[in-house]
Amino acid sequence: MGFTSAWSISAHDDDFISALAPRLLLLIDAEQDEPLARERWDRWRREPLPDFRSWWKPFGRVCRSEADTLESFLELTASGEHVQKLYDGLPPDDFSLLNGVWDRIAGAEDIFLSVQSKEYALRVFFHAIGPARAVLLPGWCGNFLLTSSQVRQTLPAVERALGFTAEERAQAEDQDWLEYGDDEESVLDGPLRMWRQAAADARGLCGVSVTVY
Q1: How far apart are CA 144 and CA 142, in angstroms?
Q2: Cα dihedral sign for 133, 37, 117, 146?
Q3: Is the peptide bond before 92 cis (omega within 30 degrees of 0)?
Q4: What is the arithmetic mean of pLDDT over 35-42?
């Protein structure tokens, strides 16, 4: 069965970040506090997956010797049930990510958005950069809400996580199996651009990884 996912990082003024905080932060905390999620995170840090060509194929993933480790990583990097509620806008709260966050974006420069069919952009991003870099990023598995002050505070760590030498960049690109259009930003470029831009503009950031349908 197919699905479509979206990972977005959008820039907003602090007033909007403050208004969104009561809705989103509790959901992110709930994702992070789940014991199984923490177990999956710790396992990935201990056992990063090998070259994706040994376990991934279009329209299905194959793995033999690392089956349990692979399944754990796939579950870790799929959209969680808590943050998913923000996208769905389920009763009694009809606020949704689509109408309440994405529709407020004034220009394309204010958002990084990766929409994927039968894949999660966050999954590819995490595998490409590896756990040692991913642990430097704030929030939980691509989900975060930061004020402008927090963006500035976290920028050095994000620079360390996503700043590559030429050799490191080539290695990361080699483990990114997404296909990009001419005007589509890669998962290795969009997040750092958004952090730098938001820090320069004194704005906050909202990151969410969800299943669209």
Answers
A1: 7
A2: negative
A3: yes
A4: 97
